[in-house]
Amino acid sequence: MNSRRDFIKKSGIGFAGLLITPSIFNNILLDSKQDIGIQLFTVREQLNQDVKLTLKKIADIGFKQVETFYGYGDKMSGKGFWGLDAKELAQLLKTYGLKSGSGHYNTTQYLTDGNTEVLKQQIEVANTLSQKYYTIPAMAPNVRQNGTVDGYKKMADLFNKAGELCKNNGLTLAYHNHAFEFATLEHKQTGFDILLKETDIKLLKFELDIFWVVNAGIDPITLFKQNEGRFAMWHVKDMDKTDNKVFTEVGTGRIDYKTIFENRKLAGNKFIFIEQDVIKKDPFESIAQSFSYVKQNLVK
C-alpha cells in the first residue's frame, strides 16, 4: 500500500497546491489504499481440493488480501491450513502477491473455559502470517443459543483479556458478528449493545458482517454514528432481494452498499473482505463478479 508521501508524489501535487480539506484528503487516502480481500471460507471446498490453484485463481481475479480461518479440524481445513503450516502458507501467499490482514481463529475453548493456552498458540500463527487482526469468528455456543445479559458481560470480560494478550503480541483483537447478537434481552438491551459498552475500545475492534446486521433489521449507518471508529473490518456480502436468508453476489441484492461505503471513514474501516457463505454458481465466477462490482462501484 502507498504511503501518504507516495500518494502525493504520484498525484503530481504538493502540499502547497493541495486545495482540499483534511477530511476529504483522508477519504481519498482510504479509497486509494483499499485492497479488496476475500474471506477464504467462501472457497473452502476448493481449498481442500487444491490450495495452490485456489489461491492462484484468487490472485488472478485481482484480490490482494485474504482472511484465513484456522483451528476447525479435518472437515474444514485439514491439518493447519489445508495441509500447510503457517510458514508454508505465508510463503505461498507471498508467491501470489497476497497478504492476510486478518484471520478467524477457533476460540470455542477459550470462550468456554477461559484457558489462554490455545490463544497463545494461535497468536503465534497470526504473527507468522503477518496478520494485523486476530478475529473471534463466533460467540460461545451457550451464549449463542441462550444469550443473557450476564452471559454477554462474561464474554466481554473474556474479550478484554484476550485483547490485552493480542496487544502485547502486536495484534488487535476483533469480533465478527452474526444476527443473534442483536436479539433483545433484559431491559431492552441487545448482546451487541453489551459488547460495545463493556469492552475496551483500545482492546477490541469489530468486524461487522453487513449481511447479518441487515438480516437482524439493524441499519449499519446508525451503528457507525453511535460507535464511531469501532468497525475496522467488514464482511461484504449481499442479500437476495426476495429472501433475507439467502446470500447472493455483491451488487445483485438488496443491501445499499454505495451508501455504506460512503461512511467507511465514520466506521473506522481498514479492511473489507468479500464473503458468500453459500454459492449457487461456479465459485470463482461468483467471487469474480462480487470483486468486479466492489472495485468498479465502491472502491474508487
From TrEMBL:
UniProt KW keywords: Isomerase
**Isomerase recorded as keyword:** yes
The terms under GO molecular function for this entry are: isomerase activity
Top-level division of the source organism's lineage: Bacteria
* Keyword Isomerase among UniProt keywords: yes
Q: Which InterPro entries match?
A: IolE/XylAMocC-like (IPR050312), Xyl_isomerase-like_sf (IPR036237), Xyl_isomerase-like_TIM-brl (IPR013022)
The UniProt record lists the Xylose isomerase-like TIM barrel domain at 56-262
Q: What is this protein called?
A: Sugar phosphate isomerase/epimerase
- Per the UniProt record, the source organism is Pedobacter xixiisoli
